[in-house]
Amino acid sequence: MTPPVVEAIDFFYLSMPRIEDIGDGSQDMLLVRVRAGDHTGWGECEAAPLPTIAGLVCPMSHSACKPVAASVLGQRLADPADIARISRDVRANSLDLLQAAHVLSGIEIALWDLLGRRLEVPVHTLLGYPRAYPKTAYASALFGDTPAQTEAKAAKVRADGFRAAKFGWGPYGRGEVAADAEQVRAARAGLGPDRHLLVDAGTVWGEDVEAAAARLPALEECDVTWLEEPFETGALRAYAELARRCRGVRLAGGEGAHHPHLAQHLIDYGGIGFVQIDTGRIGGIGPAREVAAYAVEAGVTFVNHTFTSPLALSASLQPYAGLPDHLLCEFPVEASPLARAATTTPMVPDAEGQLHLPDGPGLGLEVSPDDLRPYLRDVEITVDGTTLYRTPDLTA
User: Fold this and answer.
1) By its UniProt entry, which SUPFAM superfamilies does this protein fall under (predicted)?
2) 253 beta partners
């Protein structure tokens, strides 16, 4: 049987009617559809949709700055090695296109989904895992504007059966040290003493080690498992210095990595205890699987990062699905109606707070074009009278 080739890549810019200035990445979405032969795969980029669409179709600037589509269309798609080869081509041919990693991520995820559907196996099987282990879902939410709001959120998380919760962004790190301590104490009070509590600083301190270290006493007092992204992804010296000052709390980071090397540097030189990878940023599922294997060898815990749709959630779990000792997974509990409308296949934790991967082929989820149509943005990119992109038909 002749292997299929990639015939079409469609990007869809979806958005809530109103975007708020908060740390909620589920307010818009760049949905990806890839077609090869009689098969279709779906993916999602964790990126601003408009510049990412431009990265797919932009005119060539030079030999190492080509549109991503040029390296993908017409390529054979018979096995995982083809996906790896396509990814290498994109990295080389779009080296100077800094949005390329985001563009590639959604396409690469869709390629895995398509290949799994074609071969009628889940993606994690294609990655070499004999089985997928359930993960302990941690409820991922923003800090409330006040400690009382945070405590109420934490109490609801506990009542909903979650065994762990993460609070981040909002006012945390932007005001006084005492105010941040009250937020963390409120989260612990609402969650109770027997649940994992995680805190996400959202890179708020840049590379200011002293500002981050001032928050450590409250984190240690409240038995916080990790402090996430105290600094920018590349601030390795700051990470390493803060890690040396930590006692019980560990550092987490890596969601900003757009290449496996960046995540590996955080492991090797940043002193992190948890490496968090977003398949929608790092280049897709294959590169995330590479980081997961590296983390195992380094004794660092791999965790997914996702704050958008179930499609992105399933993709983010595949790279470490078969690792029995890497158990925590991010589960957004405040996702937008857009994110919830993306698929018709539910992904929710069970009564024990465990999240199981779908067992269907590919990512195991069905995308719902009819439910997404109200969120579709009409976009056209034209250069010198030639239309490079026009919003495709979502339901075709």
Assistant:
1) Enolase C-terminal domain-like, Enolase N-terminal domain-like
2) 275
Q: For the residues 67-86, what does the mean pLDDT come to?
A: 98
Domain count, the chain: 2
Alpha helices in 192-322 (DSSP H): 209-213, 216-221, 236-245, 260-269, 279-282, 285-298, 310-317
Q: Judge if 303 and 159 occupy the same domain.
A: yes
> 237 with 268, same domain?
yes
Spell out where the chain has E strands: 6-15, 28-36, 39-45, 135-142, 164-168, 196-200, 224-228, 250-253, 274-277, 301-304, 328-332, 354-355, 380-383, 386-390
> What does R_g of the chain's alpha carbons equal in angstroms?
21
Residue whose structure tokens are 């292997």: 3
CA nearest neighbour of 87 among 255, 276, 286, 292: 286
Do 206 and 245 have their domain in common?
Answer: yes
Where does residue 15 fall: left (phi above 0), alpha (psi -120 to 50 degrees), or beta otherwise? beta
The closest of 266, 159, 174 to 215, measured between CA atoms, is 174
Q: Is the pLDDT of residue 209 over 90?
A: yes
The pLDDT > 90 percentage for the chain reads: 95
Q: Which of 21-25, 277-281, 371-375 has the lowest mean pLDDT?
A: 21-25
User: Rounded distance, CA 149 to CA 153, Å?
Assistant: 6
The separation between the first and the last C-alpha atoms of the chain, rounded to the nearest angstrom, is 26
Q: Is the dihedral of CA 114, 115, 117, 123 positive or negative?
A: negative
Reduced to 3 states (helix: H, G, I; strand: E, B; else coil), residue 215 is: coil
Q: What is the mean pLDDT of the chain?
A: 96
Name the band, by pLDDT with cuts 50, 70 and 90, for residue 1. low
41 - beta bridge partners?
34
Q: 375 is in which domain, residue-wise?
A: 5-125+368-390
Task: For 246-305, write each residue's pLDDT tens digit.
Answer: 999 999 999 999 999 999 999 999 999 999 999 999 999 999 999 999 999 999 999 999
In angstroms, the CA 257 to CA 236 distance is 13
